[in-house]
Amino acid sequence: MAAPGESSAARRDVYRVEQLTKVYGSGDNAVHALRGVDFTVAEGAMLVLLGPSGSGKSTLLNILGGLDHASAGHAWFHDRDLTTFGDDALTEYRRRSIGFVFQFYNLVASLTARENVALITEIAQAPMDPAEALALVGLESRLDHFPAELSGGEQQRVAIARAIAKRPQVLLCDEPTGALDSETGTLVLAALDQVNRELGTTTFIITHNAVIADIADEVLMFGDGRITGRRHNAVRKAPGGLSW
Ligand SMILES: Nc1ncnc2c1ncn2[C@@H]1O[C@H](COP(=O)(O)OP(=O)(O)O)[C@@H](O)[C@H]1O
Ligand SMILES: [Mg+2]
């Protein structure tokens, strides 16, 4: 029960997902990517979605991020059901509320780190200063470097700065360390950990690497389009302590 004077909104869920289902194709070619997924995500949580390739992780993230439509079920973002949104409403939701980080960084090669981040902040409503966003991911000394002058892990941290500079409520990361070795991968995870703690951004990290699950508050295990387990970590492990 809420304490006197405490708003219930203080502990609200960002997402509430019920029987979410996704089928690609139809008939004999139908692929059941999500077979009825249920979960809730508390505001500010760090979540890891862990599971083998093909288990439906990206499909779920794409639906939560407004990049794809569900086939059935519900996905509430606060009090609005994303599955009822048309394309325009999804685009608006994505622009305003969601930051994405993918395995490949997709930086503009002809722009510096600062300019890559500024591309986004120029069109956002109350953005961070690009230099501030880059400092948050540990790149304060790389502001004027071009992508080709940065390591893979540094480029991914620019991509994280770009994603969070518009202060999205939610950061969705699909295999953000998938192309990185352990040492640079942990620096990228440390940047995500820092963003989650400092900005309170609800953060999802998809991985098939079980070691990474220890940095999360909550771990959702995926198998064959279903959530096969959920674990709460009483203590979040510092990313710097991981290796794989
Ligand atoms: N656009 C698509 N068209 C058809 N099948 C797809 C598409 N995207 C994903 N799938 C299939 O859906 C299942 C789940 O895929 P995905 O969500 O990408 O899994 P994961 O991210 O866990 O590797 C897989 O069998 C995959 O081949
Ligand atoms: Mg995937």
Task: Give a verbal description of the structure.
By secondary structure, this protein is an alpha/beta fold. It has 6 helices and 10 strands, in the order βββαββαβαααβαβββ. It has helices at residues 57-64, 87-97, 113-121, 130-136, 152-164, 182-199; strands at residues 13-24, 31-42, 46-50, 72-77, 80-81, 98-101, 170-174, 202-207, 218-223, 226-232. The protein has a 6-stranded mixed β-sheet with strand order 6-7-8-3-9-10, with helices on both faces. It has a 4-stranded antiparallel β-sheet with strand order 2-1-4-5, with helices on one face. β9 and β10 (226-232) form a beta hairpin. It is globular, with a radius of gyration of 18 Å. Residues 1-10 have low confidence and may be disordered. Bound molecules: adenosine-5'-diphosphate and magnesium ion (MG). Magnesium ion (MG) binds next to α1.
Taking the alpha carbons of the first and last residues, their distance comes to 42 Å
Residue share in helix: 25-40%
The overall pLDDT, averaged over residues, is 94
Main sheet attributes: strand count, strand direction, barrel closure: 6 strands, mixed
Q: Tally the helices: what do you get? A: 6
Strand residue content = 25-35%
Order of helices and strands: EEEHEEHEHHHEHEEE
Which word captures the global form?
A: globular
Number of strands: 10
Low-confidence stretches: 1-10
